[in-house]
Amino acid sequence: MAEEIAARFPFWMTSILLVLGLYGMIAKRSLIKKIIGIAIFQSAIIFFFISQSVKREATVPIIQEGAIPVNPDLYMNPLPHVLMLTAIVVSVAIMGVSLAFLVKIRREFNSLDEQELLKQVQNQR
Predict the structure, then answer these.
(1) How far apart are CA 34 and CA 51, in angstroms?
(2) Can you tell me whether residue 112 is helix, strand or coil?
(3) Which tens digits make up the pLDDT trace of 50-84?
(4) Closest of 109, 117, 104, 101 to residue 29, by C-alpha
């Protein structure tokens, strides 16, 4: 049983992080906690893609001159790593814009609680 859990550690860890991030986005009332949930959720997805792209005993895909025939099983695919690097940049940008919005919301409404913000917006109508 322990060997099976250890063999599927990336799946278990990804699942735990996904549930934790989803819980933070849905169940929490504070907008800061919702943003933290989004960050955890994004990290879980990046962790999943990186863990699935690992190939044991593979090397970088630099084919040297005269190395014929080329066996693709000996090389690691760099595309998932490059895509996840892009995802990390996007998640940092999302985090920065979200925090800038939170600063503006806090200055405007003097609160970051979702229920209180909804009440204030309804009272303004």
Answers:
(1) 26
(2) coil
(3) 988 888 888 777 777 776 667 777 778 888 889 99
(4) 117
Residue whose tokens read 């992080």: 17
Give the relative orientation of helices 31-53 and 114-124 as an angle to the nearest 10 degrees.
130
Burial of 35 (0-12, 13-18, 19+ CB in 10 A): buried
Taking each helix axis from N to C end, the angle separating 31-53 and 9-27, rounded to the nearest 10 degrees, works out to 160
Give the distance, in angstroms, between the CA of residue 46 and the centroid of all CA atoms in the same chain: 5
Answer yes or no: are the C-beta atoms of 99 and 15 closer than 8 Å: no
pLDDT digits (tens, 9 = 90+) for 7-38: 788 899 999 999 999 999 999 999 999 999 99
CA distance 26 to 21: 9
Q: The tokens of 19 are what? A: 């549930």
CA distances from 58 to 27, 54, 62, 64, 74 (A): 42, 9, 11, 15, 5
Which of the four pLDDT bands, split at 50, 70 and 90, describes residue 101? very high
